[in-house]
Amino acid sequence: MLIRFKKSFEKIAMGLLSFMPAEKDLKQLQSTIKQYETDENWQLFLWKQDEDIIGAIGVIFKDEETVEVQHISVNPSHRGQGIGKQMVNALKDMYKNKSVIPNEETEAFLEKCRSNDEQNN
């Protein structure tokens, strides 16, 4: 289940985002979290399964019709279970009337999700 990021989840969110290649540096990571907290066009969602938060997906609202996925991360002990794909699908459901697109860092993952969907149909 996708839940909106709240300040009380900051440490968990930072831990999850730190798995993204561009967020390895602590100062960069702190800057990214601050951007999610202060910029209304940046939204961070966390994936809650049972009682644990095990994933994060962050988006930027590019314009009225476009949502760009800029971060997606799953706790390493939960990878390979389709959690990332569930987060992408939940995001697409949430923004049915918008186009959900990747950025450079998330492009390969979103493409993989898309090709898996096509194989299953």
TrEMBL record:
Residues 3-121 form the N-acetyltransferase domain. The keyword Transferase applies. It comes from the Bacteria. PROSITE patterns: GNAT. Transmembrane segments: none annotated. The keyword Acyltransferase applies. It holds the Pfam family Acetyltransf_1. CDD domains: NAT_SF (cd04301). InterPro entries: Acyl_CoA_acyltransferase (IPR016181), GNAT_dom (IPR000182). Keywords: Acyltransferase, Transferase. PANTHER family: PEPTIDYL-LYSINE N-ACETYLTRANSFERASE YJAB. This is Riboflavin biosynthesis RibT protein. It comes from Metabacillus niabensis. The lineage of its organism: Bacteria, Bacillati, Bacillota, Bacilli, Bacillales.
